């Protein structure tokens, strides 16, 4: 597959998650709620996490933002459901490395649709958009893990 075709496929995946976000909504029962925003562009997210016995059992989000921010939140909530806290945090570190253009081991986790966001690394101003939901997840899970 040529680079242009791959780039187009990635754009389609991002727009699919933006137009039809997965896990959009709120959790109420014993959910951890984390609010974060990106003041430079106006993106904001409210992330809801259900954590039981050290495992993320459910994740949802609400908020407003650009296609990169909301697509990333959609992909992230899909990816972390069912993961142990440690694995979710490791996945977040892998994503952060990808966003910074660092070498990462794609075999460590099946990134699935998340891989479509790797092109964001070429646009430093957009990295904060892509990482907003991930930073919220890290904050919430680290708080949960320390209890």
Automatic annotation (TrEMBL):
What is one Pfam family matched by this protein?
A: NifU_N
Q: Name one GO molecular function term.
A: iron-sulfur cluster binding
| Boundaries of every NIF system FeS cluster assembly NifU N-terminal domain copy | 10-129
Q: What CDD domains would the database entry show?
A: IscU_like
The Gene Ontology biological process annotation of the record reads: iron-sulfur cluster assembly
Q: Which family does it belong to?
A: Belongs to the NifU family.
* PANTHER family to which the protein is assigned, alphabetical: IRON-SULFUR CLUSTER ASSEMBLY ENZYME NIFU HOMOLOG (PTHR10093)
Task: State the name under which the record lists this protein.
Answer: SUF system NifU family Fe-S cluster assembly protein
Question: Organism, per UniProt?
Answer: Bacillus taeanensis
